[in-house]
Specification:
The protein has a single domain (13-179), classed as Muramoyl-pentapeptide Carboxypeptidase, domain 2, CATH 3.30.1380. Helix content is 17%, strand content 22%. The chain is built from two helices and eleven strands, in the order E-E-E-E-E-E-H-E-E-H-E-E-E. It is globular, with a radius of gyration of 15 Å. It binds zinc ion.
Amino acid sequence: MTSPERIRWRRSVAVGDPAAGRLLRGVRLPSSGEHFFTWDPVKRRSPNRYWRRWGTDRLVRLLLRVAREYHTAHPGAPRMAIGDLSRPGGGDFGPQFGYIGHATHQNGLDADVYYPRADGLERAPRYASQINRRLSQELVDRFVAAGAVIVYVGPNTGLRGPPGVVQAIVNHDNHLHVRIR
Ligand SMILES: [Zn+2]
């Protein structure tokens, strides 16, 4: 399945901080592609809405690359599930945008990626008990190897990585959160 959406590449600027920032000339991640699909955490369906999938060009490139390499390694596994990035111009992405919102995701450097499910369905898991731990750890490792500065994982997932980069925090038992520099 290929996406009809073409990516409009441009040099983006991440302004300020992930918790208080903006995004200039952001790039929109397509709703799906050969190697990934997107997931709306509020409506709990695929694809994610267009205004929740904006990042810097570097972030979008990194997501596409990890998704491609992961899918190539596991052609029979579900495609990588990408959730929220930032809003079109960045800025506040709090609870007024649905569910619990995000304290960060404000300047195009953050993305949520759902763990692969143990049952192989292409939808987001809800609980740590539903994830394929081996494939989830592999995704964490791939983002660390790709140069992520932070990968948040859930405390009940058992996922690990280099201290200071991979950190366990609440509300991340069904997805990892990756941040680039
Ligand atoms: Zn996040």
